Amino acid sequence: MSFRARIAVSAAAAVALTVIFASVLVYLVARQQLRAPVDEALATRAADISRQPLGVFETPGGDTVLAVRPEFGEARGYVQLVRSDESVLVPLRQDIRLPVDADVLAVAGNESAAYWKDLEVDGIHLRVFTFAFGPDAAVQVARPLTEVDKSLEQIGLFLLLIAASGVAVAAVLGLLVSRAALAPVTRLTEAAERVTETRDLSERIEMSGRDELSRLATSFNTMLAALEEATRAQRQLVADASHELRTPLTSLRTNIEVLASDRALPTGERSRLLSDVVEQLGEMTTLIAELIELARAEQQASDPEEVRLDLLAADAVERAQRNMPGVAFSSELEESVVQGVPSTIERAIANLLDNAAKWSPPGANIEVGVRNGEVIVRDHGQGIAEEDLPYVFDRFYRARSARGMPGSGLGLAIVRQVADAHGAEVVAEQAEGGGTRMVLSFRRAPAISAS
Fold it and tell me: Which three-class secondary structure state does DSSP give residue 268?
């Protein structure tokens, strides 16, 4: 059974239970209201009999009968006197005798109180009231419930029709409501099936409102967006790697083929080729590592924490000075606390320092500053041409002046990726007096106070 059908059945069952409960309650109230006049009339008649003695006379045939008002012995009511010796007297024209049992005899012997009872006598449904009369007798007064039963039968049929109609209407409304309520689930299912069939992660579900199903659709759209972004990053990694590795692999293969051939090489040529192979392998290793880092950063997000920007910069400067002794680093670091992921911020600062060292002449000074949530790196190299400034943070972009230098073209792209992930900003500009000034600013990111 489908979920929609289960909702409709549940709604119909709930309405059915409610209607049945209400119908039973209405039936009982109507039964009480219809039987009350009968009980009241019997109680009144019993009071009348108790206030005056019952006459007894003999018929010409020698039978002893009760002398009561004629109207009470007609079809509208019955009366019967029962003595403790089990003898019974009825009016002359009353052809129905009420059954006498131990309960009646107990009332006749003053051993039990008066009571009400329903009886079926000769196919007639009777309401009977039995009460004590004198020291050794009981009187039974009865009235037929035929009209009451007919009315109750009509009421019961009417309530049954109402209940059946209510259940049917509830089932139909349940189907309509479940169809409307489960429309987002249907769209979600169809979207999931289309994604499974077409592998198109750009599929989205249109939603409105703020209920649980809308939240489910929103979560599904968010999941699809995350999957689409992860797939895009994976494809970008493959495309970037295939594009950037093609040239060094070709060169590497050529050099290895020359070294593996039997051809005699000039003096020093073999050593030069081997040096080129080692250098190309190093560049490829760096390129692959940076490509993987870019892809990993796009797909994974760490929880931000309080970061001392000045301490991260100090660690990066110390490591850069150790790895690149050909240049000097001077730093002016003020205490600055930002919200972020320490490892990725430190990687971005290191890439800025590496880029500055690459463009600095031997013995040049690189100035590093941290203040007010900003990292400033300024070198004294040849600088970046005006037309190249808008593109220096693009993947694999290399200015004309840099195409003969080692590097993957991914270092500054990683810096911008880190900045974007933190809601920060990175810019490159020409510095006064030559060189380049790069600023990684976290001012736009959520700020926290330094302790």
Answer: coil
